[in-house]
């Protein structure tokens, strides 16, 4: 009699345009990986996630699925997702619906917290603490302390995007002015730049490199916003490292250089900030790393790895 293959866990990262899924073994190794487009709306998201789970489970050598973890934007209450506006979700029992569709236990997690768990694992679970700073359409962070994702008392730990650093700055949908997200979020930068290209933040950096005055100003705002987010994270959670990921991070060293320059400049007049060596605490997540999907899998039920706080 042939022994059944060991059960695996599947992690699914749900974004506004794509769904990414990975299957992992008991040691956290990736067995299979896939991407597909996201279908918006409650029925569409359920179908997108269920299909992604089925696809990776069907890959050779994967075997039965023991549990599923889902990372998704929005307010997470138990297994429910609320106010995921970009996905067209107001209130959805995503965990219950996916459990019924795939026949496995499901854990639902905020997408940035899931990515934080994944980034921690990708780094080899090195160090007692780490912050993951997601620079996407918006800005948010996830914090890992002693190997555990720390969501805070109400699930808002790491919402650095809505820290106001300029009371006279651009208006933010949250009702404040000059929030970090209005200066450095990919969506806000694209609106302020008003370019016609497919990759407005990249176009902005190219224009700044060509000495376009307006582009230089906006790139400076972006660097100032990201640097402020790093300072907030270090001064409140004191992580050993801040790992930067998300779509904007694909600029690579071009982003890292201007942020490090801003961190050095803003520390010059403060011996205290200088002592923190903020510019040395930041690094980029590898651009092809499936941090969100991997983290969701690691946070799935009964996995003995990175834990939920």
Automatic annotation (TrEMBL):
InterPro entries per record: ATPase_NBD (IPR043129), ROK (IPR000600)
Q: Which domain of life is it from?
A: Bacteria
Q: Which family does it belong to?
A: Belongs to the ROK (NagC/XylR) family.
The record ties this protein, via PANTHER family, to: N-ACETYLMANNOSAMINE KINASE, ROK (REPRESSOR, ORF, KINASE) FAMILY
Q: How is this protein named in the record?
A: ROK family protein
Per the UniProt entry, what species is this protein from, by scientific name? Microbacterium marinilacus
